[in-house]
Amino acid sequence: MTTISTTTPSVQSGSSGRSSSSASSDIASQIQSLTQQVTKLTKQLKEIASGSGTTEEKKKQQELIQDQIKMLQAQIAQLQRRQAEEAQKNQEQKQAKAEGVNSPSAEHKIDIYI
Length: 114
What we know:
Layout: H1 20-48, H2 55-98
Helix pairs in contact: 1-2
């Protein structure tokens, strides 16, 4: 029987006061790490068929690995959503900076009639 051991890192929420660029690069590195784990598990899943053990043991191992892959994919999706939210937030902040003294916003518009 082949023994398969894997670990899955927990997804941390919140940026804990870090700058947005370091938080987004942290998320990107987490996504990359999780993607590598999915790749590793996929390879293990393919190797089960040629490994030793009964059909029932192989089927059980395949189910365990597939469950781990699903969990990792869910974590990746969660991180990608958070990354998209941060990108949108940064974009909104940049747009807010563009409005102001030299470029009128809807709130600070003056109508002039001649």
